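FIELD: query
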Amino acid sequence: MGTVVAYSVLCTDRRSLQVPLFATVGSPLAVRAIGDQFRPLRSPAPVSAWYNAFDPRDVVALYPLDASNFPVQPAIVNYGNVKNSTDNRHGIVGYLDDREVAKRVLDALRTE
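FIELD: result
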């Protein structure tokens, strides 16, 4: 539920936060029962860019955070080619083992 908590905090926190990249993996925000709790949907103000990675076999991340499932502006960059090789398709280790996901996170950390 990390994505759900982080999204809620970023949408409601009144401090002058600056988040150059909001990187989410295995996000359930596009599941209607969850997304409906945050209507109207919006990109959190402190977020400059949003990158979402998911494994199509992850039963928590059922849908990409795209215009049809989670319509926010600016659009979220979705990467749906994660092949989480662990027994837990939703586990963070499998997501961070993905070369593209690791590169995006590392690049964001380098810009700080």
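FIELD: remark
The longest strand covers residues 22-25.
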